[in-house]
Amino acid sequence: MTDSEKWFESAKKIIPGGVNSPVRAFQSVGLSPLFIRRAKGARLYDIDGQSYVDFVLSWGPMILGHAHPAVLEAEVRAAENGTSYGMPTIMEVDLARMITTAVPSIEMVRMVSSGTEAVMSAIRLARGFTGREKILKFEGCYHGHSDALLVRAGSGIATLGIPGSPGIPRQIAKLTITVPYNDLSAFESAMEQHGKDLACVIVEPVAGNMGVVPPEKGFLEALRQLSSNYGVLLIFDEVITGFRMTYGGYQNLVGIKPDLTCLGKIIGGGMPVGAFGGRRDIMSLVAPSGPVYQAGTLSGNPVAMAAGCATLSLLKSFGDNYQVLERRTKLLCSALEQLFILKGIPVRINRVGSMFTVFFTSEEVRDYASAFSSNTLLYARYFKNMLRHGVLMAPSQFEAAFVSFAHTDEDMEQAFNACEAAIRAL
Fold first, then answer.
1. Measuring CA to CA, which residue among 315, 303, 314 is closest to residue 273?
2. Residue range 287-316, pLDDT digits in tens
3. Model pTM?
4. Does 154 score more than 60 pLDDT?
5. Edge-to-edge order in the sheet of strand 51-54
6. Are the beta carbons of 241 and 204 closer than 8 angstroms?
7. Which residues, 6+ apart, have CB-to-CB distance to 412 below 8 Å?
8. Same domain? 115 vs 199
9. Which run of H or E residues covers position 235?
């Protein structure tokens, strides 16, 4: 028994399932989770002394790689002055200014401590602004674990194979309308039926929690137009995509302005940070300037703000390097796809920017239903063989893999060789 396995057995006695977030349990791939001792660059090191090229990257935040010297320096410098004040700091204003400058649709922003908190708060704000109660979301899009948003969600819900979660009152679930992602006719029908009662439409502009699923041409544009027609607020959940494909939001690339945007992950540089922001007239309703209440003891935490400012400062200085990162990811995905084709194994590799998912299916993956056509048992075997050769992919078919600026040519070559060996084993 490895040290990771021993610690997992101990953890299960005092932590539900032995982990503090379900997908970490490696349940769907039939293994015990790795317990990590440290990370540096694009690599993780477990407590058994094994090294792995990391394509999970803490589920997306570590776009600069782990333990980037400039981010670490900022965190240490901030921590030396105290780790939490419960009072305003200059760094909160600095990070807010960086976000509002980078994402034009965000005129005002409120810092919180997680993506779940950001989305929950944005929806409360949308209800307060419109005076309406219903919301519309898309099947397979995961927006955190607040009650109204676990209806037909992706990510951990999809991994565990359950439709939602016990503990959600039926009255709350009834207020959530769900529509298949990328299905414009279904969305139009839902708007005709419920549009006048909807406070908001919320969407991941690039779905990342049923695996990577890009929006089809005209899909996001239709959401923007129809939402406006019915007086419904459009919320982009860019917790994953924010600052991932460009300096700013995915909305910058497609030229669509949502009314509200939720951010997280990268803007915290590896620390627990979320944010929601948008039009000034909407955000002005947030307490204390307005009646929609939101608060948090650790919101705007100085260490987290320092990490976020350092990360965004570096990303802004990179300029065209985002295109370099995308090309590297594209080359890796193309090479992996050719390996599968040569061996006659049906796969679809969906990629947007520097995030991708390998689906074991011959069917085009464009929504939640087609994502579920993937052979999850084959994915589990693929995962195990990649891990055996020192490459960590997401321990779930329904998650994204990420490439960072820290991944080297040697890391990418190791991933290719590991995949080649994994395919031989399959």
1. 303
2. 999 999 999 999 999 999 999 999 999 999
3. 0.95
4. no
5. 36-40, 43-46, 51-54, 391-392
6. yes
7. 328, 331, 332
8. yes
9. strand 233-237
What's the total number of domains in the chain?
2
Q: Which residue has the tokens 């057995």?
A: 9
AA identity, residue 79: A
Domain co-membership, 269 together with 391:
no
Rg (CA), the chain: 21
Active site amino acids: 142, 237, 265
Q: Which of 318, 351, 368 marks a domain boundary?
A: 318
Show the domain range for 18. Answer: 3-67+320-425
- How far is Cα 177 from Cα 127, in angstroms, rounded to an integer? 15
- Decide: 54 and 43 in contact? Cβ < 8 Å: yes
Q: What is the CATH number of the domain that holds 20?
A: 3.90.1150.10
Query: Residue 219: which CATH number?
Result: 3.40.640.10
* Two structure tokens written together for 74: 């900022």
H or E segment to which residue 156 belongs: helix 156-160
The stretches of 174-262 forming alpha helices (DSSP H) are 184-194, 219-229, 250-254
Report the relative pairing of strands 134-139 and 198-203 from DSSP bridges.
parallel
